[in-house]
Amino acid sequence: MKIHNPYSKVRISKDILPKELLIYILVWSSAVFYAITCFANESNKYFQYYDDAYSDFTQGWSFLNRKKDVADFEWQSMKFLIKNLCLWVVLLSVVSEVLRKYSFIRILQLWQIVVTVLFIINNLGVIALLVILLQPVIFSFVLTKHSKLMIWLCNGIVLVLISMYKNFIAKEEFFIIFKLKEQAAYITIITIFWMNLRCVSYGLDLIDSKGKQDFVAFLSYCLYLPNALTGPFISYKDFVTSHKHSNNLFSRLSQLFLDVSRFLFWLFFTELCLHFIYVNATGFHPEWVESLDSWSLYGYGYTMGQFFHIKYLVIYGLATSFAKFENIKVPSLPVCIGRIHLYSDMWKYFDAGLYNFLLRYIYIPTMKNRFITSRSLSSLFCFLFVYVWHGTDNYILIWTLLNYIGVIIENCSHWFNTKYLQNSKLYESLGPKWFRRINCMTASPLLAMSAISNFYFFARIEIGNIFFSRFMNDNSWSNFVLLTILYNCCQVSTEVRRKQRNSKDKNA
To answer: What's the CA gap between 193 and 175, in Å, rounded?
Structure first.
């Protein structure tokens, strides 16, 4: 995986004509709106008299008099967490503010541990707590060796054990033996995966700083409640800033109120949409999905992507709102998938926390290794970690493999453009505007591949195969229309990137 943006040094052309840009925006937004409308209409007709044997729907808000799609287990689990975390996080923040003011750092660290431990016991159970605490205990012993190799070997073993545990909890007897509810088991496994990143981060940062292990500080970092169970990843170096007192309480409270209000709005907006667009229940009906016309099918695909985006915007947004209030430097939030067309940008801007982890602890160190001189090989190590960390399922393998291939193609395109095209007579004769148009034309098929790879991730293999088969076997006219629409998306995305670059240059 090429962690830094492979297009960061490519000259982005000057403004295209405003009328031309307006056409791109109108075509892209109109096509998206029409496709979503087609899918919404089809899904409403299909599920109108659906025999809901698997509880994919529930009675919606009374004033709407409609049923609501509740088929996404992750979204339901995250809503459960948000509801139950509210008072605990507020309590944590209030007491922490007092302890910071009087510089009671050790008490603050213990407080951060105690609050999370009590929350886990109260909501997930003692068994879940013991499973969650197992990783910090194991890594604390490994850290006595002060060896990065030992940390990575330990991490490999831990990830294998986590995968085995993940497969074990999928069996019915697990819930009978440990008396765990399905939702509690799911939240526990998610917490363990996030805990894994924090354990590795603390260990590697400790060795780089040549410091001594402080188990209380380590545990307070691993169990910091706002992001302990949901992410995003925050490095230990950024976390320790929460121990510093800040006097601007009113401005931080104002920002916290605005941030929380913003993400609660998106939460309720998503819930509203699930009364009309049955995007999650659709994934369990591949035979029907296969029968959809192309507009409805691609509307379903785009809706999956937007639901995934808003879901993590809400989850990460609420977590980072409180972390930011406590002076922690937080990663940027997921950007809208409707204005990204490059693989590298998707990895960089969707989950910035995971991106920072891969960059800091895998990509850069492997690039500095004298035995690894290829960026492609360093990228491969990143994608191997992503594959194992996400759970080693077949659909994860397809998703990571397609993403790796996509990034490699981008890198090759970047190398060819900078080495040959941008210094050629062809570039001089065409000019930057036509060069940008050609780039967007060639990027359109890659954007289609990027979308399909994500459909494997969102809805598993069977649904991903349907999109892949449709794209490969659809008639020429349908694919021409699709690629034309994606071309407009590439133009809009390029313009957004250009304006962001100009804004950064002005602020530099």
So the answer is: 20
In 327-398, where do the E strands start and end? none
Count H helices and E strands in the chain, helices first: 21, 2
pLDDT at 480: 97
Kindly give the pairing relationship between strand 57-59 and strand 67-69.
antiparallel
Q: Tell me the C-alpha distance between 443 and 430, whole Å.
A: 18
DSSP label of 15: P
Q: Residue 177: what pLDDT?
A: 58
Q: Of 394, 491, 401, 462, give the one whose Cα is nearest residue 26.
A: 491
Residue 497 vs residues 21, 269, 321: alpha-carbon distances, Å: 14, 27, 26
Whether 339 contacts 497, CB under 8 Å = no
> Token pair for residue 507?
């602020």
Low-confidence stretches of the chain (pLDDT < 70) are 1-15, 170-180, 373, 420, 422-423, 505-508
What is the number of other CB atoms lying within 10 angstroms of the CB of residue 218? Answer: 21
Give the bridge partners for 59, in sequence order. 67
Query: How far from 408 is each of 344, 422, 493, CA to CA, in Å?
Result: 10, 20, 20
Cα(454)–Cα(340) distance, rounded to whole angstroms? 13
pLDDT digits (tens, 9 = 90+) for 453-486: 999 999 999 999 999 999 999 999 999 999 999 9
**Taking a C-beta distance cutoff of 8 angstroms, is the pair 148, 207 a contact?**
yes
User: How far apart, in whole angstroms, are the C-alpha atoms of residue 346 and residue 453?
Assistant: 12
Question: CA distances (Å), 213 to each of 116, 136, 390, in order?
Answer: 21, 12, 28
Minimal CA–CA distance to 67: which of 93, 49, 89, 79?
Answer: 49
In angstroms, the CA 461 to CA 112 distance is 40
With CA atoms as reference, report the closest residue to 162 among 140, 143, 182, 134. 134
